[in-house]
Description:
disordered N terminus
Amino acid sequence: MIRQTLSALAVTVLMAGCAQTDADTTTQASAAPPEGKECFWLREVSGFNRAGRNQILVHTGPNERFLFETLGHCPNLNFSETLAFDQRGPGQICRGIDVNLVVGGNIGPRRCPVKMIKKLTKEEAKAY
C-alpha cells in the first residue's frame, strides 16, 4: 500500500515538474551531475524508511539507499506513511537543491527543503 501511494505521488509530482518552458528544460537537462556525486532518477524510487531526526532513507534499487536530511525540522516526517518528491526540473536527483520532500499530515501536505543527499554504502545502510 505504501509503495503504491509513493509511486502514485511520485508520478503526480514528476508530471507537475514537466510543465516548465523548453528553455529551462534544455539548460537543466544538459547540465552534468556534480563531480563525485551519486545520483538517481525519480522513477527509480521504490520506498523509504525513517532514519532519524529529520532524516529518511530512500530506496532506489535492491541494494541502493540514499540518506536525505531536511533543512531544519520537518513536521510528520517520522510518522508519515506517504512521501512525495517535488523535483526542480527534469534530470537526476543529486543534491538537496534538486528536490523538496512533500510529507502528508493532519492539516495537509507540507514541503520540506532537503539539505543533503548521500548515497550510502551497503555497510552504512545496514546501520539504519
